Automatic annotation (TrEMBL):
Keyword list, A-Z: FAD, Fatty acid metabolism, Flavoprotein, Lipid metabolism, Oxidoreductase, Peroxisome
Catalytic-site annotation from UniProt: E430
Molecular-function annotations in GO: acyl-CoA oxidase activity; FAD binding; fatty acid binding
Cofactor(s) listed: FAD
Residue stretches making up the Acyl-CoA oxidase C-terminal domain: 510-623
Organism whose genome encodes this protein: Coccomyxa subellipsoidea (strain C-169)
Name of protein: Acyl-coenzyme A oxidase
One Gene Ontology CC term in the entry: peroxisome
GO biological process: fatty acid beta-oxidation using acyl-CoA oxidase; lipid homeostasis
All residue ranges annotated as the Acyl-CoA oxidase C-alpha1 domain in the record: 298-445
Length: 635
């Protein structure tokens, strides 16, 4: 009743005109959670169900009492048992990418360490061999990766070079006399650092190193190098050190590697895009070092998509647990905590954002699967933006869910806390988020340099802020304005420096870009906000189950309003929003929250059910009957 009262009151403030678009009684038709699940999960539905069923095995139940070494050991055994089921193969990386991704995505719902251990092995190591290697590499390594006979690592990061991969120091020098490459770590800063699986279990590693042939530097290339022999002993010349305990994700054994003039055969070079003949003749169809480097790291896209999906799936679990608890937990006078506006404000935008990210992930997969060469740049931009957006949203969402569950959110058995710790690193690995958002912004600025955008300020005067077209126009306006602002600053700096020559102009432009990095980051966000909102609306209009369209439309509205509300300072400063319009945005968010949580929050609960998380993956006692927690938590 309180929610309905608030919808009625707030709807009067949504607009300065008489057009009240969020009616007092929002008519949300009944809809089936199963239909929503199929709207959100479009590939390998049966396989996913089969894998989730397999993961009911008690071995995959959380155990928060393990030591570091026990947890690592369990993670390896869990992976081995999963691999033995042959749900997917490393060959699927090329032949059936959706099946490959579905396999790895499913693991995230039971344990993130297991998911990352598998991800490093299959995606980063196996995927790199599949993508950059040729048939001889596929035949030699992929079947042995498929059985986990050769646990795989990915050696890109060095102590001295993380985000700046181009600057790595590890050397690979071709020896024409013996027909071998010599892999060497010249300094401690060149040691490979953070290498997943290296500390204990890894036997083979895809190593990034600067290639020199006949004294000529050819840029970073990738080599398959054995770290340990079949019995698990380090190979001659390979030094391995354990990174030790981490803030989370302790089921993965990360380590540091040094190579002391390790000799590997000529075939160790993954040679799809460049090769070295026995006599030391280097050849590549890709002419420049920079372009070749782009191809070498291009394989990271699948990994980024998986990290984004892992963050989205964790958000689903967190939101589902917190919503179920909120709708069942009374506090003060028998009132359920979900009835408090503060609770709705924390959980319902989180629900809407999770839907937005999930739909964007599906759209990215569609683009990826279309395999059109002309989409390569868009895929890079969208995957970078989604990786950063989804993981940063996850940080906020899981924190909000944790707090919304009060003390219970802090109990490990209730899952949200441990997930938060284990996943904290997803904003850093597979491309640090700040760097990823710059990839997005740079692409927009490149386009703007050729064709500057002309920002169109939408009129909010007299308009309803819940109008989806207005919300889209507002998000577009912000993106175009920020693009124009940074592009103009760069253009001005280059023009001033131009009399000093082209080099001076380029340097001045680079300085101007760095001077505006704060706005550049906002620009990355503005792009992610716009495309995710537009995608959400389009998916609802074209592919959503009919009965669920009203509620999904409301959810999309809430998402759009939340993104506009976050950027209200921009809209007020730019003159797009007046004080009254800002108040209408606030009222719009509160109204949508009230509508979604009315009548015991059935709509919000049903939308969370649409995530399709089986009970054994929700796991948390507070998601079921919180009063029974004393009898369900085991010691
Ligand atoms: C648990 C874990 C597992 C990992 N597993 C692997 C693995 O298996 N294999 C592997 O190769 N690597 C792995 N990594 C490494 C990971 O990919 C790197 O940590 C990541 O690329 C960031 O590099 P860095 O840690 O050196 O940070 P840095 O690049 O030094 O960044 C530090 C800070 O500086 C900022 N910064 C850097 N450059 C810029 C810029 N141009 N503009 C603005 N800000 C900037 C970043 O935003 C960040 O906040 C792992 C890391 C962790 C923590």
């Amino acid at each position: 009743m309180a929610a309905e009262r608030r919808v009625a009151a707030l709807s009067r403030h949504l607009t300065s005109s008489s057009d009240v678009s969020l009616s007092a009684k929002v008519d949300l038709r009944d809809f089936a959670a199963e239909d929503v699940y199929l709207f959100l999960t479009r590939d390998n539905v049966e396989l996913r169900a089969k894998m989730l069923d397999f993961l009911k095995d008690p071995m995959y139940r959380p155990n928060y009492y393990l030591s570091l070494m026990e947890f690592r050991d369990l993670t390896l055994r869990r992976l081995q048992k999963f691999v033995d089921q042959k749900f997917f193969s490393t060959f699927d990386y090329l032949n059936d990418p959706l099946r490959f991704m579905a396999g790895l995505e499913t693991l995230a719902s039971v344990d993130y360490s297991l998911c990352i251990k598998a991800g490093v092995h299959f995606t980063l190591c196996g995927g790199t061999i599949a993508k950059l290697g040729t048939e001889k590499h596929h035949k030699t390594f992929l079947p042995r990766l498929d059985t986990l006979e050769l646990p795989g690592c990915f050696g890109m990061t060095e102590l001295g070079h993380g985000s700046n991969v181009m600057g790595i120091e590890t050397q690979a020098t071709y020896d024409e006399e013996t027909g071998e490459f010599v892999i060497n770590t010249p300094t401690d800063t060149a040691s490979k650092f953070w290498i997943g699986g290296a500390a204990q279990h890894g036997k083979v590693c895809t190593v990034f190193a600067q290639l020199t042939v006949r004294g000529k530097w050819e840029g970073p290339h990738v080599f398959v190098v054995r770290l340990r022999d079949d019995s698990g002993q380090p190979m001659p010349g390979v030094r391995i050190q354990d990174n030790g305990p981490k803030a989370g994700l302790n089921g993965v054994d990360n380590g540091q590697l040094w190579f002391y003039n390790v000799r590997v055969p000529r075939d160790a070079l993954l040679d799809r895009y460049s090769s070295v003949a026995p006599d030391g003749t280097y050849s590549s169809p890709i002419p420049s070092v920079a372009q070749r480097f782009g191809t070498m790291v291009g394989g990271l896209t699948t990994g980024r998509m998986l990290i984004a999906q892992g963050a989205i799936d964790a958000s689903k679990i967190g939101v589902a647990i917190a919503l179920r608890y909120a709708c069942a937990r009374p506090q003060f006078n028998g009132k359920c905590i979900m009835e408090y506006l503060t609770h709705q404000r924390r959980l319902l935008p989180a629900l809407a954002t999770t839907y937005a990210m999930q739909l964007q992930s599906l759209r990215l997969k569609d683009l990826y699967m279309a395999k059109r060469p002309e989409d390569a740049k868009t895929i890079h931009v969208v995957s970078s933006g989604l990786k950063a957006g989804a993981t940063w949203h996850r940080v906020e969402i899981l924190q909000a869910c944790r707090e919304c569950c009060g003390g219970q959110g802090f109990l490990a058995a209730n899952k949200i806390g441990p997930m938060k710790n284990d996943m904290d690193v997803d904003v850093t690995f597979e491309g640090d988020n700040t760097v990823m958002m710059q990839q997005v912004a740079k692409a927009l600025l490149d386009t703007a340099a050729k064709k500057p955008p002309r920002p169109q300020m939408p009129s909010m005067e007299g308009a309803s802020v819940t109008d989806l077209t207005l919300l889209a126009a507002l998000l577009r306006f912000r993106e175009d304005s920020l693009t124009a602002e940074v592009a103009a600053a760069i253009g001005r700096a280059a023009k001033v420096a131009a009399p000093g020559g082209k080099k001076a102009a380029v340097a001045a432009a680079a300085d101007a870009y760095e001077d505006n990095l704060d706005t550049v980051l906002q620009l990355g966000w503005a792009h992610v906000d716009r495309i995710t909102f537009e995608g959400f609306v389009e998916e609802v209009n074209t592919r959503a189950p009919r009965e669920a369209r009203p509620v999904l439309s409301l959810l999309a509205t809430l998402y759009g309003l939340t993104r506009v509300e976050r950027a209200l300072a921009f809209y007020l400063a730019s003159g797009a929003a007046s004080g009254a319009a800002a108040a209408a945005v606030r009222a719009g968010v509160n109204g949508a929250c009230a509508a979604l949580s009315a009548d015991g929050g059935w709509a919000a609960l049903r939308l969370a059910e649409g995530f399709g998380i089986p009970d054994h993956c929700l796991e948390a006692p507070i998601a079921f009957d919180w009063r029974q927690i004393g009898s369900t938590v085991t010691m």
